[in-house]
Amino acid sequence: MINEKRRRLALFYCQNVPESREADRQALEETSGETVALFPMPCSGRVEPVHLLRALEEFADAAYVITCPQGACRNFEGNSRAMKRMERTKSIIESIGLERERVGLIVCSKENPKSLAALAQEIMEDISSLGPSPALGPHGR
Amino acid sequence: MITGEQKPVDEIRRMIAPYKRILVLGCGSCVAECASGGEKETAMLASALRMAARIKNEDVVIEEMTIDRQCVNQFVIQLDKVIDPYDAVLALGCGAGVQAVAEMYPEVPIIPGLNTEFLGETQAQGVWAETCLGCGDCMLYDFGGICPLARCSKQILNGPCGGSVDGRCEVNPDIPCAWQLIIDRLDKFGGLDRLEDIYPPKDWSTKQGGGPRKIIREDQQK
After folding, report:
1. DSSP code string of A85-100
2. Quick one: B47 exposed, middle or buried, by C-beta within 10 A (0-12, 13-18, 19+)?
3. Of A47, B107, B197, B203, which residue is least crowded by CB atoms under 10 Å?
4. Across the interface, do A50 and B44 touch by the CB < 8 Å criterion?
5. Per the structure, how many domains does chain B have?
6. B35 touches chain A (CB under 8 A)
7. Which of B51, B57, B64 should be substituted to probe chain A, the one whose Cβ sees the most A Cβ atoms within 10 Å?
8. Optimal mutation site among A96, A99, A102, A141, interface B, most CBs of chain B within 10 A
9. At A139, is the pLDDT very low, low, confident or very high (cuts 50, 70, 90)?
10. B131 is a domain residue
């Protein structure tokens, strides 16, 4: 079971994302303080709905996935699988009364590549309108 | 294998509402293969139910475990060690599995988490199709390995009906015409003469004519 302090965002990302090596992750963790929990994955196709649900259940107000660009998956179809699983996850959280926007997926652009840190910042802005997640209870976990 | 689909969360929540301690019980066999009641799906549902309870400020304990087979007593008995603290079990097995668990624990409410669908095959990743009704009197020899009872929308034994278009069923164009498949297959190995016979209406007495069926094999018993 994931055991983390409450964070605004759980971010699962493909290691094919630009500037997402271990040093980049550590730097981002330092600058983001305790707002983001980062989970490097060998491929976004490894992210299952249960990973996102557990993050929402245990510590995160939102859970997102960053995939490599369309057609660039080293495992051929990992990122397209991630997209399908994201749709399923959205429907599950909607069925329990959570906003669909509490989970999401960003596909890296091949033409305009952005670093992990820049993408994380964009996601934080996207979710800024979401309040604390009621799935974590009134005082968080 | 037996296929199933998870019931809507609202329906599940209505059924578990009276209980405070619930065990979500997965099954690692058929319903794991069709991604509705295996370990992953059990973890997902339990997590979703815990969050739903927290959102509604409900004081409940929801935990999960998965056993290899819910329909075999020797596997169900593993629950002996864990079932005591729970008020109810939400079982993600097929109907046979749910009933096997219920029979073993008569004092504990057993709630079905799936709608059991059909006996079928995995045709592609994420695609399951009904191919057998379990009629108790297999006619696949006569029809070249394609069952018209399970796969023809009209269940006709003396087909084709003449309504198919481009090999697709006129009732449901999403499925191939079973009779087109039967004729194509029989033709491939020179078996079309099997269709010379006129088949009488199906004798359903071997399915449920005598009530629930049972197979007893003395050589397999203790």
Report:
1. HHHHHHHHHHHTT--G
2. buried
3. B107
4. yes
5. 2
6. no
7. B51
8. A96
9. low
10. no
User: Residue A33: is its pLDDT beyond 90?
Assistant: no
Q: How many CB atoms lie within 10 A of CB B57?
A: 9
Last residue of a domain, one of B87, B118, B149: B118
Residue B221 lies in a domain: no
Judge whether B222 lies within some domain.
Answer: no
The residue extents of the domains of chain A are 7-128
- Per the CB < 8 Å rule, is A98 touching B55? yes
CATH topology of domain A7-128: Rossmann fold (3.40.50)
Six-digit token string for A46: 């490894």
Predicted confidence (pLDDT) per residue in B69-115, tens digit: 999 999 999 999 999 999 999 999 999 999 999 999 999 999 999 99
The pTM of the full predicted model, rounded to 2 decimals, is 0.93
In this prediction, residue A3 carries a pLDDT of 47
Query: B175 is in which domain, residue-wise?
Result: 137-206
Give how far Cα A130 sits from Cα of A3, A85, B27, B56, B82, Å: 22, 22, 37, 18, 39
